[in-house]
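A quick aside before the break. I want you to see a complete sequence-to-structure record at least once, exactly as it would be stored in a machine-readable document. Don't worry about memorizing anything.
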Amino acid sequence: MPLKRYTPNDILECGCDEAGRGCMAGPVFAAAVILPPDYFHPLLNDSKQVAEHNRERLREDIESKALAYAVAQIAPEEIDAINILQATFKAMHLAIDLLTTPPQHLLIDGPAFRPYPWIPHSCHIGGDATYTAIAAASILAKTHRDQYMKSLHFQYPQYDWQNNKGYGTASHTLAIKKWGITPHHRKTFGICKDYFHLAM
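That is the input. The structure line, written in tokens, reads:
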């Protein structure tokens, strides 16, 4: 089914989505995107359903044509302090704060959101595969986060972040067991809790 808008064309709707919520390492990223009402790209979909090289093409197109967009992140130490759900909400709020054009309605991917002052919102499970603006936000959050994790890979190549992006793959888990965790790991996540004593 093709992606669509949620509000009428005269409403500035803003899609919001996150990337990296389930990772063991790295920040959680969130993007907020306001698109023109007639925006269309044949490859646009939930970022998890789009090949990496196509995500990069989409990022360029979205950023060049969006009426406004912003990307924000919350660091691992803050995720550990306030929990990943609150960190995700905070990252979305920060991204909305950075928009150069204020939206009139927020479309949130997922079942819950902490209300943003003065702007109504609606939550949509599977919204990144339903609404154009949320799909665009998912692409920006994912590509910006992947770029960040690839840059960290050169400092800590043994964790293979250029490929696993901080998720708990077999190779990443084995590296934690051998080398311990880094300042970029989330100390409250998964096996990171058990290997804190080996922290680099």
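Two observations worth writing down. The longest helix spans residues 132-153. DSSP finds six helices and five strands in the chain. We'll return to this after the break.
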